[in-house]
Design a protein that fits this description.
This protein is an alpha+beta fold and 591 residues long. It folds into three domains: 2-41, no CATH class; 45-143 and 196-231 and 245-413, Alkaline Phosphatase, subunit A, CATH 3.40.720.10; 420-589, no CATH class. Helix content is 27%, strand content 19%. The chain has a ten-stranded mixed sheet with strand order 8-7-6-5-9-3-12-13-4-14, sandwiched between helices. Helix 7 (197-215) packs parallel to helix 8 (286-319). The model is unreliable at 1-39, 407-411, 487-494 and 585-591 (pLDDT under 50). Residues 1-20 form the signal peptide. Residues 45-388 form the Sulfatase N-terminal domain. This is Arylsulfatase. Keywords: Glycoprotein, Hydrolase, Signal. It catalyses: an aryl sulfate + H2O = a phenol + sulfate + H(+).
Length: 591
Protein backbone atom coordinates (compact mmCIF):
# COMPACT_ATOMS: atom_id res chain seq x y z
CA UNK A 1 0.00 0.00 0.00
CA UNK A 2 2.73 2.60 0.77
CA UNK A 3 4.20 1.96 -2.69
CA UNK A 4 0.83 2.33 -4.44
CA UNK A 5 0.02 5.48 -2.48
CA UNK A 6 3.38 6.96 -3.38
CA UNK A 7 2.86 6.08 -7.02
CA UNK A 8 -0.58 7.72 -7.04
CA UNK A 9 0.87 10.87 -5.52
CA UNK A 10 3.59 11.00 -8.17
CA UNK A 11 1.10 10.47 -10.99
CA UNK A 12 -1.22 13.15 -9.63
CA UNK A 13 1.67 15.58 -9.26
CA UNK A 14 2.72 14.89 -12.86
CA UNK A 15 -0.81 15.59 -14.07
CA UNK A 16 -0.80 18.88 -12.20
CA UNK A 17 2.50 19.80 -13.79
CA UNK A 18 1.31 18.94 -17.28
CA UNK A 19 -1.90 20.88 -16.79
CA UNK A 20 -0.06 23.92 -15.55
CA UNK A 21 2.37 23.77 -18.44
CA UNK A 22 -0.55 23.89 -20.83
CA UNK A 23 -1.51 27.33 -19.49
CA UNK A 24 1.92 28.84 -19.84
CA UNK A 25 3.39 28.71 -16.36
CA UNK A 26 5.94 26.78 -14.37
CA UNK A 27 4.27 25.26 -11.27
CA UNK A 28 5.64 24.18 -7.96
CA UNK A 29 3.61 21.39 -6.32
CA UNK A 30 3.42 21.53 -2.54
CA UNK A 31 2.09 18.84 -0.13
CA UNK A 32 0.38 20.65 2.74
CA UNK A 33 0.13 19.28 6.29
CA UNK A 34 -3.36 17.98 5.63
CA UNK A 35 -2.15 15.92 2.69
CA UNK A 36 -3.79 18.13 0.04
CA UNK A 37 -1.75 18.97 -3.04
CA UNK A 38 -1.81 22.57 -4.23
CA UNK A 39 -0.05 24.17 -7.15
CA UNK A 40 1.66 27.53 -6.77
CA UNK A 41 2.49 29.06 -10.15
CA UNK A 42 5.95 30.55 -10.05
CA UNK A 43 6.55 32.05 -13.50
CA UNK A 44 3.45 34.06 -14.26
CA UNK A 45 2.74 35.53 -17.67
CA UNK A 46 3.10 39.30 -18.05
CA UNK A 47 1.28 41.61 -20.46
CA UNK A 48 2.86 45.06 -20.33
CA UNK A 49 0.89 47.85 -22.02
CA UNK A 50 2.69 51.20 -22.21
CA UNK A 51 0.99 54.17 -23.85
CA UNK A 52 3.02 57.13 -25.09
CA UNK A 53 2.82 60.50 -23.28
CA UNK A 54 -0.32 59.57 -21.33
CA UNK A 55 -1.01 61.91 -18.43
CA UNK A 56 -2.52 61.10 -15.05
CA UNK A 57 -3.03 64.60 -13.67
CA UNK A 58 -5.22 65.80 -16.58
CA UNK A 59 -7.71 62.94 -15.98
CA UNK A 60 -7.27 61.25 -19.36
CA UNK A 61 -7.61 57.76 -17.84
CA UNK A 62 -11.13 58.73 -16.76
CA UNK A 63 -12.01 58.61 -20.47
CA UNK A 64 -10.87 54.97 -20.78
CA UNK A 65 -13.86 52.99 -19.47
CA UNK A 66 -12.63 49.62 -20.73
CA UNK A 67 -9.20 49.98 -19.13
CA UNK A 68 -10.91 50.93 -15.89
CA UNK A 69 -13.33 48.00 -16.12
CA UNK A 70 -10.81 45.30 -16.99
CA UNK A 71 -7.64 46.47 -15.22
CA UNK A 72 -8.28 49.20 -12.64
CA UNK A 73 -11.38 47.66 -11.08
CA UNK A 74 -9.82 44.20 -11.15
CA UNK A 75 -6.46 45.30 -9.78
CA UNK A 76 -4.55 48.01 -7.96
CA UNK A 77 -3.86 51.64 -8.79
CA UNK A 78 -0.52 53.08 -7.68
CA UNK A 79 -1.43 56.64 -6.80
CA UNK A 80 2.13 57.85 -6.25
CA UNK A 81 3.89 56.37 -9.26
CA UNK A 82 6.50 58.48 -11.03
CA UNK A 83 8.91 58.43 -13.92
CA UNK A 84 12.41 59.63 -13.13
CA UNK A 85 13.05 61.32 -16.50
CA UNK A 86 10.09 62.96 -18.24
CA UNK A 87 11.10 62.03 -21.78
CA UNK A 88 10.31 58.83 -23.66
CA UNK A 89 13.67 57.28 -24.63
CA UNK A 90 15.54 57.90 -21.35
CA UNK A 91 12.48 56.78 -19.42
CA UNK A 92 12.12 53.59 -21.46
CA UNK A 93 15.78 52.64 -21.18
CA UNK A 94 15.60 53.16 -17.42
CA UNK A 95 12.47 51.02 -17.26
CA UNK A 96 13.93 48.15 -19.28
CA UNK A 97 17.25 48.17 -17.38
CA UNK A 98 16.07 49.02 -13.87
CA UNK A 99 18.62 51.84 -13.73
CA UNK A 100 18.46 55.60 -13.32
CA UNK A 101 19.29 57.63 -16.41
CA UNK A 102 22.55 58.81 -14.86
CA UNK A 103 23.56 55.12 -14.78
CA UNK A 104 22.43 54.30 -18.31
CA UNK A 105 23.75 57.62 -19.72
CA UNK A 106 20.90 57.50 -22.24
CA UNK A 107 19.48 60.94 -21.55
CA UNK A 108 17.93 62.16 -24.80
CA UNK A 109 15.82 60.96 -27.74
CA UNK A 110 18.55 61.59 -30.31
CA UNK A 111 22.32 61.02 -30.60
CA UNK A 112 24.81 61.87 -29.27
CA UNK A 113 23.17 61.68 -25.83
CA UNK A 114 20.32 59.29 -26.50
CA UNK A 115 18.20 57.22 -28.84
CA UNK A 116 18.66 53.64 -30.05
CA UNK A 117 22.31 54.21 -31.12
CA UNK A 118 23.21 55.32 -27.59
CA UNK A 119 21.41 52.29 -26.13
CA UNK A 120 23.54 50.03 -28.32
CA UNK A 121 26.72 51.99 -27.59
CA UNK A 122 26.19 51.57 -23.85
CA UNK A 123 26.07 47.78 -24.24
CA UNK A 124 22.45 47.30 -23.16
CA UNK A 125 21.38 45.12 -26.09
CA UNK A 126 22.59 42.14 -24.08
CA UNK A 127 21.70 43.54 -20.65
CA UNK A 128 18.04 44.48 -20.41
CA UNK A 129 14.70 42.99 -19.44
CA UNK A 130 13.72 40.85 -22.47
CA UNK A 131 17.16 39.21 -22.57
CA UNK A 132 16.99 38.44 -18.86
CA UNK A 133 13.47 37.04 -19.19
CA UNK A 134 14.50 34.74 -22.02
CA UNK A 135 17.40 33.51 -19.89
CA UNK A 136 14.83 32.69 -17.20
CA UNK A 137 12.74 30.60 -19.61
CA UNK A 138 10.22 33.11 -20.93
CA UNK A 139 9.03 33.58 -24.48
CA UNK A 140 9.15 37.33 -25.17
CA UNK A 141 7.19 39.42 -27.67
CA UNK A 142 6.97 43.11 -28.44
CA UNK A 143 4.87 45.35 -30.68
CA UNK A 144 5.15 49.10 -31.22
CA UNK A 145 7.53 51.82 -30.25
CA UNK A 146 10.71 50.81 -28.44
CA UNK A 147 13.25 53.64 -28.69
CA UNK A 148 13.60 56.88 -30.61
CA UNK A 149 16.08 56.95 -33.50
CA UNK A 150 15.34 53.24 -34.07
CA UNK A 151 14.79 53.78 -37.78
CA UNK A 152 14.52 52.36 -41.28
CA UNK A 153 18.28 52.63 -41.75
CA UNK A 154 19.69 51.23 -38.49
CA UNK A 155 17.07 48.68 -37.32
CA UNK A 156 19.45 45.82 -38.22
CA UNK A 157 22.63 47.42 -36.85
CA UNK A 158 22.15 45.37 -34.75
CA UNK A 159 18.68 43.92 -34.38
CA UNK A 160 17.27 44.38 -30.89
CA UNK A 161 18.02 41.23 -28.93
CA UNK A 162 15.83 39.28 -26.56
CA UNK A 163 12.59 38.76 -28.46
CA UNK A 164 10.88 35.57 -29.60
CA UNK A 165 8.80 37.79 -31.85
CA UNK A 166 8.83 41.54 -32.46
CA UNK A 167 7.20 44.13 -34.70
CA UNK A 168 8.71 47.56 -34.06
CA UNK A 169 7.54 51.00 -35.13
CA UNK A 170 10.42 52.72 -36.92
CA UNK A 171 11.45 56.35 -37.30
CA UNK A 172 10.92 58.62 -39.11
CA UNK A 173 7.36 57.28 -39.26
CA UNK A 174 6.85 56.29 -35.61
CA UNK A 175 4.48 59.16 -34.86
CA UNK A 176 2.76 59.36 -38.23
CA UNK A 177 -0.73 58.07 -37.44
CA UNK A 178 -1.65 57.48 -41.09
CA UNK A 179 1.76 56.58 -42.49
CA UNK A 180 3.45 54.21 -40.06
CA UNK A 181 6.26 51.76 -40.78
CA UNK A 182 6.66 48.51 -38.82
CA UNK A 183 9.52 46.03 -38.90
CA UNK A 184 8.76 42.42 -37.96
CA UNK A 185 11.40 40.08 -36.50
CA UNK A 186 14.38 40.30 -38.88
CA UNK A 187 12.29 41.15 -41.93
CA UNK A 188 12.52 44.35 -43.92
CA UNK A 189 10.35 47.32 -42.86
CA UNK A 190 6.81 47.53 -44.23
CA UNK A 191 4.91 50.78 -44.81
CA UNK A 192 1.24 51.05 -43.85
CA UNK A 193 0.46 54.32 -45.57
CA UNK A 194 -3.23 55.17 -45.49
CA UNK A 195 -4.00 52.78 -42.60
CA UNK A 196 -4.42 54.06 -39.06
CA UNK A 197 -1.46 52.96 -36.99
CA UNK A 198 -3.66 52.00 -34.01
CA UNK A 199 -5.59 49.44 -36.08
CA UNK A 200 -2.39 48.05 -37.57
CA UNK A 201 -0.94 47.84 -34.08
CA UNK A 202 -3.94 46.00 -32.61
CA UNK A 203 -3.85 43.29 -35.28
CA UNK A 204 -0.14 42.70 -34.71
CA UNK A 205 -0.51 42.72 -30.92
CA UNK A 206 -3.31 40.16 -30.85
CA UNK A 207 -1.42 37.98 -33.32
CA UNK A 208 1.60 37.76 -31.08
CA UNK A 209 -0.62 37.18 -28.05
CA UNK A 210 -2.12 34.19 -29.86
CA UNK A 211 1.41 32.92 -30.60
CA UNK A 212 2.33 33.27 -26.94
CA UNK A 213 -0.77 31.43 -25.79
CA UNK A 214 -0.28 28.56 -28.24
CA UNK A 215 3.37 28.08 -27.21
CA UNK A 216 2.41 26.86 -23.74
CA UNK A 217 5.47 28.57 -22.25
CA UNK A 218 5.46 31.41 -19.75
CA UNK A 219 5.45 34.61 -21.75
CA UNK A 220 6.07 38.32 -21.58
CA UNK A 221 4.49 40.58 -24.19
CA UNK A 222 5.18 44.29 -24.39
CA UNK A 223 2.59 46.40 -26.20
CA UNK A 224 3.58 50.01 -26.83
CA UNK A 225 1.15 51.92 -29.05
CA UNK A 226 2.01 55.45 -30.11
CA UNK A 227 -1.22 57.08 -28.85
CA UNK A 228 -1.77 59.65 -27.51
CA UNK A 229 1.59 61.12 -28.63
CA UNK A 230 1.49 64.11 -30.97
CA UNK A 231 1.29 63.42 -34.68
CA UNK A 232 4.45 64.00 -36.75
CA UNK A 233 4.22 63.91 -40.53
CA UNK A 234 7.72 65.29 -41.08
CA UNK A 235 10.30 62.86 -42.39
CA UNK A 236 12.99 64.77 -40.57
CA UNK A 237 11.95 63.66 -37.09
CA UNK A 238 13.78 64.72 -33.95
CA UNK A 239 13.81 68.28 -32.71
CA UNK A 240 13.13 69.77 -36.15
CA UNK A 241 9.76 68.02 -36.57
CA UNK A 242 6.47 69.87 -36.19
CA UNK A 243 4.28 68.06 -33.67
CA UNK A 244 0.54 68.51 -34.14
CA UNK A 245 -2.54 67.11 -32.38
CA UNK A 246 -2.94 63.30 -32.43
CA UNK A 247 -5.08 61.80 -35.19
CA UNK A 248 -7.82 59.53 -33.81
CA UNK A 249 -9.43 56.67 -35.69
CA UNK A 250 -12.39 57.89 -37.74
CA UNK A 251 -14.82 55.97 -35.52
CA UNK A 252 -13.71 58.07 -32.53
CA UNK A 253 -13.36 61.47 -34.18
CA UNK A 254 -16.76 62.75 -32.97
CA UNK A 255 -16.27 62.03 -29.26
CA UNK A 256 -15.87 64.46 -26.36
CA UNK A 257 -16.93 67.55 -28.30
CA UNK A 258 -17.51 69.63 -25.14
CA UNK A 259 -14.51 68.44 -23.12
CA UNK A 260 -11.82 70.97 -22.22
CA UNK A 261 -8.52 70.85 -20.34
CA UNK A 262 -9.27 70.86 -16.57
CA UNK A 263 -9.36 74.47 -15.40
CA UNK A 264 -7.16 74.04 -12.36
CA UNK A 265 -5.53 77.06 -10.64
CA UNK A 266 -2.28 76.52 -12.54
CA UNK A 267 -3.93 76.36 -15.97
CA UNK A 268 -2.78 79.47 -17.88
CA UNK A 269 -2.51 81.45 -14.63
CA UNK A 270 -2.62 85.23 -14.51
CA UNK A 271 0.70 85.26 -12.67
CA UNK A 272 3.78 83.36 -13.83
CA UNK A 273 5.22 80.46 -11.85
CA UNK A 274 8.32 78.31 -11.77
CA UNK A 275 11.87 79.45 -12.44
CA UNK A 276 14.27 79.76 -15.37
CA UNK A 277 12.54 79.84 -18.78
CA UNK A 278 9.18 78.75 -17.35
CA UNK A 279 8.91 81.90 -15.26
CA UNK A 280 9.22 84.01 -18.42
CA UNK A 281 6.33 82.42 -20.36
CA UNK A 282 3.55 84.74 -21.49
CA UNK A 283 -0.06 84.06 -20.64
CA UNK A 284 -1.82 82.32 -23.53
CA UNK A 285 -4.49 84.22 -25.46
CA UNK A 286 -7.96 82.79 -26.12
CA UNK A 287 -7.04 81.36 -29.53
CA UNK A 288 -4.15 79.48 -27.93
CA UNK A 289 -6.38 78.19 -25.13
CA UNK A 290 -9.03 77.04 -27.62
CA UNK A 291 -6.39 75.22 -29.65
CA UNK A 292 -5.08 73.45 -26.54
CA UNK A 293 -8.62 72.30 -25.70
CA UNK A 294 -8.79 70.84 -29.22
CA UNK A 295 -5.41 69.20 -28.65
CA UNK A 296 -6.68 67.67 -25.40
CA UNK A 297 -9.82 66.29 -27.07
CA UNK A 298 -7.68 64.79 -29.83
CA UNK A 299 -5.60 62.98 -27.23
CA UNK A 300 -8.71 61.55 -25.56
CA UNK A 301 -10.05 60.39 -28.93
CA UNK A 302 -6.74 58.78 -29.87
CA UNK A 303 -6.78 56.89 -26.55
CA UNK A 304 -9.99 55.06 -27.44
CA UNK A 305 -8.13 52.62 -29.69
CA UNK A 306 -5.92 51.66 -26.73
CA UNK A 307 -9.03 51.22 -24.62
CA UNK A 308 -10.43 48.82 -27.20
CA UNK A 309 -7.12 46.95 -27.29
CA UNK A 310 -7.22 46.43 -23.52
CA UNK A 311 -10.62 44.73 -23.81
CA UNK A 312 -9.42 42.51 -26.66
CA UNK A 313 -6.31 41.44 -24.73
CA UNK A 314 -8.28 40.57 -21.59
CA UNK A 315 -10.86 38.62 -23.58
CA UNK A 316 -8.16 36.59 -25.37
CA UNK A 317 -6.53 35.71 -22.05
CA UNK A 318 -9.87 34.75 -20.56
CA UNK A 319 -10.76 32.54 -23.53
CA UNK A 320 -7.43 30.73 -23.09
CA UNK A 321 -8.00 30.28 -19.32
CA UNK A 322 -4.86 32.30 -18.66
CA UNK A 323 -6.30 35.46 -17.16
CA UNK A 324 -5.92 34.35 -13.55
CA UNK A 325 -2.28 33.43 -14.18
CA UNK A 326 -1.29 36.64 -15.96
CA UNK A 327 -0.22 40.04 -14.68
CA UNK A 328 -1.52 42.86 -16.84
CA UNK A 329 0.29 46.17 -16.38
CA UNK A 330 -0.92 49.47 -17.81
CA UNK A 331 1.23 52.61 -17.68
CA UNK A 332 2.91 55.35 -19.74
CA UNK A 333 6.50 56.27 -20.52
CA UNK A 334 6.06 59.82 -19.14
CA UNK A 335 3.31 62.29 -18.28
CA UNK A 336 2.12 65.37 -20.13
CA UNK A 337 1.09 68.99 -19.64
CA UNK A 338 -1.25 71.21 -21.64
CA UNK A 339 -1.49 74.81 -20.48
CA UNK A 340 -0.38 74.32 -16.88
CA UNK A 341 2.07 77.04 -15.80
CA UNK A 342 1.37 78.66 -19.23
CA UNK A 343 3.17 75.77 -20.95
CA UNK A 344 2.33 74.66 -24.47
CA UNK A 345 1.59 70.91 -24.88
CA UNK A 346 4.62 68.80 -23.98
CA UNK A 347 6.64 67.12 -21.25
CA UNK A 348 10.30 67.38 -20.07
CA UNK A 349 9.52 69.36 -16.90
CA UNK A 350 9.61 68.29 -13.26
CA UNK A 351 6.03 69.30 -12.49
CA UNK A 352 3.52 66.66 -11.39
CA UNK A 353 1.86 66.58 -14.81
CA UNK A 354 5.09 65.35 -16.39
CA UNK A 355 6.50 62.97 -13.80
CA UNK A 356 3.43 61.42 -12.15
CA UNK A 357 1.99 58.73 -14.47
CA UNK A 358 -0.76 56.10 -14.46
CA UNK A 359 0.11 52.64 -13.16
CA UNK A 360 -2.59 49.97 -12.90
CA UNK A 361 -1.85 46.27 -12.34
CA UNK A 362 -4.11 43.23 -12.16
CA UNK A 363 -3.01 39.64 -11.68
CA UNK A 364 -2.44 36.79 -9.24
CA UNK A 365 -2.95 37.87 -5.62
CA UNK A 366 -3.27 41.55 -6.56
CA UNK A 367 -5.98 43.29 -4.56
CA UNK A 368 -9.00 44.35 -6.59
CA UNK A 369 -10.14 47.95 -6.92
CA UNK A 370 -7.49 49.08 -4.44
CA UNK A 371 -5.46 52.29 -4.36
CA UNK A 372 -1.89 51.91 -3.11
CA UNK A 373 -0.19 55.02 -1.70
CA UNK A 374 3.38 53.68 -1.66
CA UNK A 375 5.90 55.81 -3.57
CA UNK A 376 6.98 53.88 -6.67
CA UNK A 377 8.84 54.63 -9.90
CA UNK A 378 9.53 53.17 -13.32
CA UNK A 379 12.92 52.06 -11.96
CA UNK A 380 10.94 49.60 -9.81
CA UNK A 381 9.19 47.90 -12.74
CA UNK A 382 12.00 45.61 -13.92
CA UNK A 383 12.53 44.29 -10.36
CA UNK A 384 8.76 43.85 -10.09
CA UNK A 385 8.59 41.79 -13.28
CA UNK A 386 11.47 39.70 -11.94
CA UNK A 387 9.31 38.98 -8.88
CA UNK A 388 6.41 38.03 -11.14
CA UNK A 389 8.70 35.52 -12.82
CA UNK A 390 10.27 34.28 -9.58
CA UNK A 391 13.67 35.46 -10.83
CA UNK A 392 16.44 36.43 -8.44
CA UNK A 393 16.89 40.21 -8.32
CA UNK A 394 20.01 41.76 -9.80
CA UNK A 395 22.42 43.73 -7.62
CA UNK A 396 22.68 46.49 -10.23
CA UNK A 397 18.98 47.34 -10.03
CA UNK A 398 18.45 50.90 -8.81
CA UNK A 399 14.89 50.07 -7.77
CA UNK A 400 12.92 47.60 -5.68
CA UNK A 401 9.79 45.52 -6.41
CA UNK A 402 6.40 47.14 -6.03
CA UNK A 403 4.37 46.17 -2.94
CA UNK A 404 2.32 43.59 -4.83
CA UNK A 405 3.62 40.43 -3.24
CA UNK A 406 2.33 40.62 0.30
CA UNK A 407 0.02 37.62 0.09
CA UNK A 408 -1.05 35.35 2.89
CA UNK A 409 2.40 33.84 3.24
CA UNK A 410 4.17 37.27 3.34
CA UNK A 411 6.88 35.80 1.12
CA UNK A 412 8.49 39.07 0.03
CA UNK A 413 8.74 42.16 2.22
CA UNK A 414 10.89 44.46 0.11
CA UNK A 415 12.24 47.76 1.38
CA UNK A 416 10.08 50.74 0.49
CA UNK A 417 11.28 54.25 -0.29
CA UNK A 418 9.66 57.66 0.21
CA UNK A 419 11.57 59.46 -2.55
CA UNK A 420 11.80 59.79 -6.32
CA UNK A 421 14.99 60.86 -8.10
CA UNK A 422 14.00 63.20 -10.92
CA UNK A 423 16.62 64.18 -13.50
CA UNK A 424 16.68 65.77 -16.91
CA UNK A 425 19.24 67.01 -19.40
CA UNK A 426 18.88 69.09 -22.54
CA UNK A 427 16.06 70.87 -24.28
CA UNK A 428 12.32 71.35 -23.89
CA UNK A 429 10.21 71.22 -27.05
CA UNK A 430 6.81 72.97 -27.07
CA UNK A 431 4.37 70.92 -29.16
CA UNK A 432 1.34 71.92 -31.18
CA UNK A 433 0.64 74.85 -33.49
CA UNK A 434 1.62 77.42 -30.88
CA UNK A 435 4.91 75.74 -30.09
CA UNK A 436 7.05 75.95 -33.24
CA UNK A 437 10.54 74.50 -33.24
CA UNK A 438 12.01 78.01 -33.10
CA UNK A 439 10.79 78.06 -29.49
CA UNK A 440 12.94 75.08 -28.42
CA UNK A 441 14.21 75.84 -24.95
CA UNK A 442 17.84 75.29 -23.98
CA UNK A 443 19.14 75.05 -20.40
CA UNK A 444 16.34 72.70 -19.36
CA UNK A 445 18.76 70.60 -17.30
CA UNK A 446 17.93 69.97 -13.64
CA UNK A 447 18.20 67.51 -10.76
CA UNK A 448 15.22 67.13 -8.47
CA UNK A 449 13.80 65.21 -5.56
CA UNK A 450 10.19 64.24 -4.93
CA UNK A 451 9.55 63.04 -1.38
CA UNK A 452 6.29 61.92 0.23
CA UNK A 453 5.81 60.92 3.87
CA UNK A 454 2.93 60.67 6.29
CA UNK A 455 2.93 64.42 6.91
CA UNK A 456 5.08 65.88 4.11
CA UNK A 457 4.79 66.10 0.34
CA UNK A 458 7.66 68.05 -1.20
CA UNK A 459 9.40 68.75 -4.50
CA UNK A 460 12.92 70.20 -4.48
CA UNK A 461 14.99 70.96 -7.57
CA UNK A 462 18.29 72.51 -8.58
CA UNK A 463 18.61 73.73 -12.17
CA UNK A 464 21.78 73.96 -14.21
CA UNK A 465 21.41 77.75 -13.86
CA UNK A 466 21.64 77.08 -10.08
CA UNK A 467 18.11 78.33 -9.57
CA UNK A 468 16.15 76.39 -6.95
CA UNK A 469 12.56 75.34 -6.48
CA UNK A 470 10.80 74.05 -3.38
CA UNK A 471 7.08 73.26 -3.33
CA UNK A 472 5.02 72.01 -0.40
CA UNK A 473 2.32 70.07 -2.25
CA UNK A 474 0.22 69.51 0.87
CA UNK A 475 -0.43 73.26 0.91
CA UNK A 476 0.25 74.01 -2.76
CA UNK A 477 -0.82 70.97 -4.84
CA UNK A 478 -0.52 72.88 -8.11
CA UNK A 479 3.08 74.01 -7.48
CA UNK A 480 2.34 77.70 -7.93
CA UNK A 481 4.34 79.07 -5.00
CA UNK A 482 8.06 78.45 -4.87
CA UNK A 483 8.75 78.71 -1.16
CA UNK A 484 12.49 78.56 -1.77
CA UNK A 485 12.36 82.13 -3.04
CA UNK A 486 12.38 83.74 0.39
CA UNK A 487 15.34 81.62 1.42
CA UNK A 488 17.31 82.36 -1.75
CA UNK A 489 16.63 86.09 -1.70
CA UNK A 490 18.26 86.53 1.68
CA UNK A 491 15.14 86.72 3.82
CA UNK A 492 15.15 84.99 7.18
CA UNK A 493 14.32 81.37 6.41
CA UNK A 494 13.40 80.85 10.07
CA UNK A 495 10.23 82.82 9.39
CA UNK A 496 9.06 80.06 7.02
CA UNK A 497 8.64 76.61 8.53
CA UNK A 498 8.12 73.14 7.09
CA UNK A 499 7.02 70.34 9.41
CA UNK A 500 7.50 72.81 12.24
CA UNK A 501 11.18 73.32 11.39
CA UNK A 502 12.92 76.34 9.90
CA UNK A 503 12.95 76.08 6.13
CA UNK A 504 16.74 76.25 6.05
CA UNK A 505 17.02 73.09 8.18
CA UNK A 506 14.70 71.15 5.87
CA UNK A 507 16.52 72.37 2.75
CA UNK A 508 19.84 71.19 4.19
CA UNK A 509 18.37 67.66 4.47
CA UNK A 510 16.75 67.72 1.05
CA UNK A 511 19.95 68.91 -0.59
CA UNK A 512 22.03 66.20 1.08
CA UNK A 513 19.53 63.56 0.02
CA UNK A 514 19.59 64.86 -3.55
CA UNK A 515 23.40 64.85 -3.47
CA UNK A 516 23.30 61.10 -2.86
CA UNK A 517 20.53 60.37 -5.34
CA UNK A 518 21.85 62.38 -8.27
CA UNK A 519 24.70 59.90 -8.75
CA UNK A 520 23.52 56.87 -6.73
CA UNK A 521 23.92 53.27 -7.85
CA UNK A 522 22.19 50.07 -6.79
CA UNK A 523 20.98 49.91 -3.20
CA UNK A 524 22.01 53.53 -2.56
CA UNK A 525 19.19 54.59 -4.87
CA UNK A 526 16.65 52.71 -2.72
CA UNK A 527 18.17 53.48 0.70
CA UNK A 528 19.92 56.84 0.36
CA UNK A 529 19.54 57.68 4.05
CA UNK A 530 21.70 54.62 4.79
CA UNK A 531 24.49 56.23 2.75
CA UNK A 532 24.33 59.38 4.87
CA UNK A 533 23.82 57.41 8.10
CA UNK A 534 25.53 54.00 7.90
CA UNK A 535 24.56 53.28 11.51
CA UNK A 536 20.97 52.84 10.26
CA UNK A 537 19.68 55.58 12.56
CA UNK A 538 17.80 57.48 9.85
CA UNK A 539 15.19 56.07 7.48
CA UNK A 540 13.16 59.13 6.52
CA UNK A 541 13.18 62.89 6.26
CA UNK A 542 11.40 63.05 9.61
CA UNK A 543 14.21 61.03 11.24
CA UNK A 544 16.88 63.23 9.64
CA UNK A 545 15.37 66.37 11.19
CA UNK A 546 16.63 65.49 14.67
CA UNK A 547 18.49 68.53 15.99
CA UNK A 548 21.68 66.54 16.66
CA UNK A 549 22.18 66.35 12.88
CA UNK A 550 21.88 70.08 12.22
CA UNK A 551 25.59 70.80 11.96
CA UNK A 552 26.21 67.70 9.86
CA UNK A 553 23.66 68.67 7.23
CA UNK A 554 24.56 72.34 7.23
CA UNK A 555 28.20 71.51 6.43
CA UNK A 556 27.34 69.16 3.55
CA UNK A 557 28.42 69.76 -0.02
CA UNK A 558 25.55 71.46 -1.87
CA UNK A 559 24.03 70.34 -5.15
CA UNK A 560 25.04 72.73 -7.93
CA UNK A 561 26.07 72.87 -11.58
CA UNK A 562 29.28 74.28 -13.05
CA UNK A 563 27.52 75.02 -16.33
CA UNK A 564 24.56 73.82 -18.42
CA UNK A 565 25.00 70.80 -20.68
CA UNK A 566 22.53 68.96 -22.91
CA UNK A 567 23.76 65.56 -21.76
CA UNK A 568 25.16 63.82 -18.69
CA UNK A 569 28.69 65.20 -18.46
CA UNK A 570 30.12 64.81 -14.97
CA UNK A 571 32.38 67.85 -15.11
CA UNK A 572 29.34 70.10 -15.49
CA UNK A 573 27.47 68.65 -12.54
CA UNK A 574 29.28 70.12 -9.55
CA UNK A 575 30.09 68.15 -6.38
CA UNK A 576 29.32 64.44 -6.55
CA UNK A 577 29.92 63.17 -3.01
CA UNK A 578 28.02 63.58 0.23
CA UNK A 579 29.58 63.45 3.68
CA UNK A 580 28.77 60.48 5.91
CA UNK A 581 27.69 60.83 9.53
CA UNK A 582 29.91 58.83 11.91
CA UNK A 583 28.59 59.24 15.44
CA UNK A 584 29.00 62.96 15.03
CA UNK A 585 32.74 62.71 15.56
CA UNK A 586 34.28 62.55 12.12
CA UNK A 587 33.59 63.34 8.46
CA UNK A 588 34.06 61.02 5.54
CA UNK A 589 33.35 61.48 1.90
CA UNK A 590 31.07 58.96 0.23
CA UNK A 591 32.72 57.49 -2.86
Amino acid sequence: MPFIASLLVLVFASLLTASANNVGSVPQSILQDGGEWVTERKQHNVVFIMSDDLDLQLNSVEYMPLMRKYIAEQGSFFRNHFVTTALCCPSRVSLWTGRQAHNTNVTDVNPPFGGFPKFIQQGFNSEYLPVWLQQAGYDTYYVGKMFNWHNIDNYHSPHLAGFTGSDFLLDPYTYSYMNSTYQRNHDRPVSYEGMHTSDVFAEKALGFLDDAIISGNPFFIGLSPVAPHSNIDSNTGGASAHMTAPVPCERHAHLFEDVIVPRTPHFNPSESSGVNWISRLKQQDQNNVDYNDHFYRSRLRALQSIDELVESVIQRLAEANLLDDTYVIFTSDNGYHIGQHRLQPGKECGFEEDIRVPLFIRGPNVSRNETIDAVTTHIDLAPTIFRMGDIELREDFDGTPLPLFYGANKTHMDIRHEHVTVEYWGIAIPEGDYGPTSDIVRNNTYKALRIIGDDYNLYYSVWCTNEHELYDLNNDPFQMHNIYEGFSSGQHAENTTILGYAQSLVIDRLDALLMVLKSCKGSACVQPWAVLHPDNSVHSLRDALESRFNSFYHRQNKVSFNWCEEGYIIDAEGPQDAYVFRNGLSWHEWA
